[in-house]
Write a sequence for this structure.
């Protein structure tokens, strides 16, 4: 029997992206993984500045490797009319255009969504910004950490004494994922109406949406949730506890039945299960310090593996607190064969499969990470330029 694999859902879709940093590149990488052709327009003088963030990925920048596989790179000077004309030719044959330039820069170049969609009715054009196209914050700098502060994420992250930023670029990622889903929604709409149209995504509005629980807790309940580190503000025990071999285990007791099992099978103090000072969650929260001391004492006498085994045996939700090296060796990721290799200018590098799995279809297209301007010549010829024209543009520094 012949098994026919379904093609990737975005095969045949062409995306042109004037992008930098994380928000737009991560959005378009999702499109590339699902089969779209993504043409990345970069500056001639160094390209996407994320290329220079670090050299941790075998000499390449880790942000860039993460966000830019499967793309074609063309390096253009958009301040030169000839470079801008190349982008316009590319857009004329594209299905999607994405940009996250500084506020106002795309409009000055005629590359904002409204202008492009007016000229190309089937085009889906995405403007990603820090704070949106209008309002008093439209012109403000919008680096990820700044938006984390403005959206309130920092205020609910950390310890009672110290607010901290998230350890990942949460505002960039939030905007990227809404841009990605916005493109998919617009493609579905175009399939029924024949028309594309603008898509607008802001980092602030994306991250503010992700703040839903603490935001609603505050505006409807009157008080913001307290910062509690790894603990839970209203559940106990719910925290990470050190084990005897230097590890840490996080556990969560969700109800009083679980507490009784924890007391009997892990703490080996069954009397705590019915003691009025600990028998209910409200009592344990009121006596959090003593509750945590009992748990810490029991787990501190065990190795990490034994602690997890006992907790799981008692039906208690738990997790190993892993560092990133341990995540890279996570047995679940290995068992599900989630790691692949992608080509880069310095050789193959490990990368995770994207989390969208389409059983019965082709695997995600995890293409190579491009060198700056690697596809410039090919793309210029594709838009009708002769070799002597390309040579002149290179000589004048308009392309690289």
């Amino acid at each position: 029997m012949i098994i026919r694999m379904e093609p990737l859902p975005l095969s045949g879709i062409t995306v042109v992206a004037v992008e930098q940093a994380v928000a737009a590149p991560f959005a378009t990488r999702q499109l590339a993984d699902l089969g779209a052709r993504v043409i990345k327009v970069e500056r001639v003088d160094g390209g996407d500045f994320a290329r220079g963030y670090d050299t941790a990925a075998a000499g390449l920048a880790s942000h860039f490797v993460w966000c830019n596989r499967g793309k074609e790179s063309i390096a253009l000077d958009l301040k030169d009319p000839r470079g801008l004309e190349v982008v316009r030719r590319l857009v004329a044959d594209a299905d999607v255009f994405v940009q996250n330039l500084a506020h106002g820069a795309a409009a000055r170049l005629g590359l904002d969504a409204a202008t492009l969609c007016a000229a190309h009715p089937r085009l889906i054009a995405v403007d990603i910004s820090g704070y949106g196209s209008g309002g008093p914050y439209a012109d403000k700098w919008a680096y990820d950490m700044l938006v984390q502060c403005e959206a309130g994420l920092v205020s609910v992250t950390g310890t009672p004494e110290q607010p901290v930023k998230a350890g990942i670029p949460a505002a960039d990622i939030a905007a990227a994922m809404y841009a990605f889903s916005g493109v998919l929604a617009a493609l579905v709409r175009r399939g029924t109406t024949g028309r594309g149209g603008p898509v607008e995504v802001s980092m602030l509005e994306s991250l503010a949406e992700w703040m839903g629980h603490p935001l609603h807790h505050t505006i409807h309940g009157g008080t913001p949730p307290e910062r509690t580190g790894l603990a839970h503000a209203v559940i106990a025990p719910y925290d990470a506890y050190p084990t005897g071999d230097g590890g840490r285990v996080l556990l969560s007791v969700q109800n009083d039945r679980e507490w009784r099992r924890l007391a009997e099978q892990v703490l080996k103090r069954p009397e705590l299960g019915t003691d009025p000072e600990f028998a209910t969650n409200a009592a344990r929260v009121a006596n959090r310090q003593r509750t945590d001391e009992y748990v810490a004492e029991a787990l501190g006498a065990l190795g990490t593996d034994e602690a997890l085994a006992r907790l799981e045996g008692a039906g208690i939700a738990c997790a190993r607190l892993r560092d990133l090296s341990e995540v890279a060796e996570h047995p679940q990721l290995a068992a599900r064969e989630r790691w692949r290799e992608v080509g880069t200018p310095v050789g193959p590098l490990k990368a995770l499969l994207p989390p969208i799995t389409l059983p019965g279809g082709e695997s995600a297209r995890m293409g190579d990470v491009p060198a700056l301007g690697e596809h410039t010549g090919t793309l210029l010829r594709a838009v009708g330029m002769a070799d002597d024209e390309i040579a002149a543009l290179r000589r004048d520094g308009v392309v690289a």
Remarks:
- The mean pLDDT is 96.
- The first strand starts at residue 14 and ends at 18.
- The CA atoms of residues 88 and 181 lie 25 Å apart.
